Amino acid sequence: HSCDGLDFSLQKQVSIMSLNLNAKIDEIQCHQHADTSAALLAIRSQLQDLTKSVESCQSEVVEVKRDMVAIKHEIDTLQAAKEEIEELRDAVDRLEEQTRRRKIRLLEQDVRAPLRSAGLAIRLSRAGGGEGRSAPPAA
């Protein structure tokens, strides 16, 4: 019967060890579950933060695109104004050149007019008074 006692004692020890191991496994699983839950919560929190950050970046990108469209419109407007200014400068340059030519023409006419008048007067005096001078006076 001593073998039966040993078997019982060994069986009892194995049962106690089995219970202890099961308790340890349960404890480890609880800790693992808690650790896993904590890790999942941390990951979810980080994902939420990243999602908010991405949404914020997306709205900033939309604003930047809107600003770029507005800036491009302003640049186009400025370019059109610049081209108009260049066209106006060209027109002013042409007008100044025309005015300069007219002034020169008027000055030439002003200078020629007295000469023409003098030449006409000379011709007239030669034509009218010249006949009287060239013919001898009647006696």
How is this structure best described in words?
There is one protein chain. The protein is an all-alpha fold. It contains 1 helix and no strands. The protein is rod-shaped. The termini are far apart. Residues 47-105 form a coiled coil. This is Putative glucose transporter type 1 isoform X1.
Beta-strand proportion: under 5%
**Principal-axes shape call:** rod-shaped
Query: What is the helix tally?
Result: 1
- The radius of gyration computed from the alpha-carbon positions, rounded to a whole number of angstroms, is 58 Å
**In angstroms, what separates the terminal alpha carbons?**
204 Å
Number of strands: 0
Computed structural class: mainly alpha
Which percent range fits the helix content? over 70%
Major sheet: size, sense and barrel closure?
none
- Please trace the helix and strand order, writing H or E for each element: H
Low-confidence residue ranges: none
Overall mean confidence score, pLDDT: 84
Keywords: Coiled coil, Sugar transport, Transport
Protein name: Putative glucose transporter type 1 isoform X1
Brief sketch in words of this structure:
The protein is built from 1 helix and no strands. It has one helix at residues 2-134. 0% of the residues are buried.
Task: Summarize this structure as a short list of keywords or feature phrases.
about 140 residues, mainly alpha, 1 helix, about 0% strand, transport
